């Protein structure tokens, strides 16, 4: 059987292995989770393991403002889905950037998905973090082989390289990570607008209105293409 690979499914150094199970109660404590969130954890999450700690002392790369360390969390799911609010809750409880590896199924049915949001300190309050939308791979088969960890000069460069494997659009030359993420989010919003406008066009009966909606749709598609280039 041919092994697939994915750039976001990374082989992390043994020196960085942490392997500590994280009790859900600790997450609730540090995030102030409400009853609805706790229910989601109970229904959807089997176990959370703090799998790797990528830090200056474990991988020998200097820390940078906003990226002192990067954590890799492994989550074994009970169901085939995980509500994004669960990830936001964990991200809110841990004061470092995190990449999540979600696991579901056993044996031949095992699958893995890598998910992360771009996480940066709030400029007004360094103790709070700002999260982008979440980016994710498709579900990868259990036979998927891990790829080598990207080479980087420091923790910030490593974080950019790790997120790169999840991004649906390539970076532009000299584009900062924050600008790149903002453009990806904008393109996603524009794509939703295109889909809504296409649905309106399909329902519209009046010729004049069809012409107007078509012109809007062409404009939106042009804007989406510019964002995607």
Termini, distance in Å?
36 Å
Structural class: alpha+beta
Radius of gyration: 20 Å
Determine the number of helices (DSSP H or I, runs of at least 4 residues): 7
**What percentage of residues falls in helices of 4 or more residues?**
25-40%
Shape: globular
Average pLDDT reading: 93
Q: Report the biggest beta sheet as strand number plus sense, adding barrel if it closes.
A: 7 strands, mixed
Structural domain tally: 2
Poorly predicted regions are none
Report strand %.
25-35%
Work out the number of β strands.
Answer: 9
Can you write the helix and strand succession as a string? EEHHEHEHEEEEEHHH
How would you summarize the topology of this molecule?
Layout: E1 5-11, E2 17-21, H1 24-31, H2 35-44, E3 45-54, H3 56-59, E4 70-77, H4 84-93, E5 98-104, E6 111-121, E7 129-136, E8 140-141, E9 145-148, H5 155-164, H6 177-203, H7 207-228
Parallel strand pairs: 1-9, 4-5
Antiparallel strand pairs: 2-3, 3-4, 5-6, 6-7, 6-8
Helix pairs in contact: 1-4, 6-7
Structure notes:
It is a single chain. By secondary structure, the protein is of the alpha+beta class. It has two domains: 5-167, no CATH class; 182-228. The protein is 40% helix and 27% strand. It has seven helices and nine strands. It has helices spanning 24-31, 35-44, 56-59, 84-93, 155-164, 177-203, 207-228, and strands spanning 5-11, 17-21, 45-54, 70-77, 98-104, 111-121, 129-136, 140-141, 145-148. The strands form two sheets. Strands 2, 3, 4, 5, 6, 7 and 8 form a seven-stranded mixed β-sheet that branches. α4 (84-93) links the parallel β4 (70-77) and β5 (98-104). α1 (24-31) crosses α4 and α6 (177-203) runs antiparallel to α7 (207-228). The mean pLDDT is 93.
